[in-house]
Amino acid sequence: MLIGEVVGSVVATQKDPQLESHKLLVVQVRSHENQPRDQYVIAVDSVGAGPGDLVLYATGSSARQTNITKDKPCDAVVMAIVDSWDVSGKNVYEKWSGA
After folding, report:
1. Which residues 6+ apart lie within 8 Å of 47 measured at CB?
2. What CATH number is given to the structural domain containing 74?
3. Where in the cell is it found (predicted)?
């Protein structure tokens, strides 16, 4: 699993029929200290995430393990919305505080 922030969405009117009705999100990769990296992933949303949410996502064959993405042509999936995040006893993110 990897961590990132939802920074946008992708609209594709022409896509594989297996991906129809699935929301595509632009996720900016974060470091272990919650710093943004200059790296982005397009992921299928399986949990109802939106702009500004910090999320856990999986890539590669792991992305095809959720009920929504099973056996579908995707390489990344958002599978959790992060509420809080601690590293070595230090809180680096708290959803409700805006940290």
Report:
1. 55, 78, 79, 80, 81
2. 2.40.50.220
3. Bacterial microcompartment
- Flag whether 99 is in a domain: no
* Residue 51 neighbours by CB distance under 10 Å: 11
Rounded distance between C-alpha atoms, residue 21 and residue 4, angstroms = 23
Q: Phi-psi category of 7—alpha, beta or left, where left has phi over 0 and alpha has psi -120 to 50? A: alpha
Residue type, 70: K
pLDDT per residue as tens digits for the range 39-72:
999 999 999 999 999 999 999 888 887 878 888 8
In this structure, are residues 23 and 44 in contact, taking their beta carbons and an 8 Å threshold? yes
What's the whole-model pTM score? 0.88
> Alpha carbon of 47 to those of 1, 35, 69, 88: distances in Å?
15, 23, 12, 28
Name the one residue in this structure whose structure tokens are 């959803």. Answer: 95
Distance CA 14, CA 1 (A): 29
